[in-house]
Amino acid sequence: MLTQLPASLDPYRAAAADKHFSGRISAGGFTRLASSVLAIAEEGVELDLSFGSRQDVRASLTGTVQVEVEMECQRCLGPMWVPVTGQFKLAFVRFPSEVDEVPDDLEAIQLDKPEIDLRALIEDELILALPLVPMHQESCQAWQDDEAATDDTQAGAEPKDNPFAVLAKLKQDS
């Protein structure tokens, strides 16, 4: 487990010091994420965060966060474990006028106070990375039942008359 993750920090100081955080943290405080899923894996959240500065940005944060969550399959309504990975490149700015100057490869985050809540930022990125419609792959029982029903109806069904056959005949006649 990573024990060196501060609750909040100044992104400009972290960027000047080229701070890097890597490891696992507990997902115990991620209440918004927990309310969006059925369960969060006990292993917690794996993260890799790098603060830095570039010629065009004073403070930036590049990171990857990963967690495994249990969600409800929207096809069969059964539980399923889903790996969730959030990747982000952020640039911190203090004034609205600086937002337009941020390069296109970075997302601008306007700070309203000198420090950021790092755990809330990680939780936000994980929530944004959740699948909109989680579904099993072909192993889903409802999917297999639907496929079997479709195969049965197609095998025993008589071919239907094409409603456009009349138009095809008119075209041939002219």
The coarse silhouette is: elongated
> Termini, distance in Å?
79 Å
Structural class: alpha+beta
Mean pLDDT: 85
Q: List the helices and strands in order.
A: EHEHEEEEHEEHHH
Counting DSSP E segments of at least 2 residues, the number of strands comes to: 8
Brief write-up:
This protein has 174 residues and is an alpha+beta fold. Helices cover 30% and strands 30% of the residues. It contains six helices and eight strands.
Please describe the topology of this protein.
Elements: E1 8-9, H1 11-16, E2 20-25, H2 31-36, E3 39-40, E4 45-52, E5 60-72, E6 79-93, H3 96-99, E7 107-110, E8 116-117, H4 118-129, H5 141-156, H6 165-173
Parallel strand pairs: 6-7
Antiparallel strand pairs: 1-8, 2-4, 3-5, 4-5, 5-6
Keywords:
single chain; 174 residues; alpha+beta; six-stranded mixed beta sheet; two-stranded antiparallel ribbon; 8 strands; elongated
Structure description:
This protein has 174 residues and is α+β, with helices and mostly antiparallel strands. It has one domain. Helix content is 30%, strand content 30%. It has 6 helices and 8 strands. It has helices at 11-16, 31-36, 96-99, 118-129, 141-156, 165-173; strands at residues 8-9, 20-25, 39-40, 45-52, 60-72, 79-93, 107-110, 116-117. Strands 2, 3, 4, 5, 6 and 7 form a 6-stranded mixed β-sheet that branches. Strands 1-8 form a two-stranded antiparallel sheet. Strand 6 (79-93), helix 3 and strand 7 form a beta-alpha-beta unit. The protein is elongated.
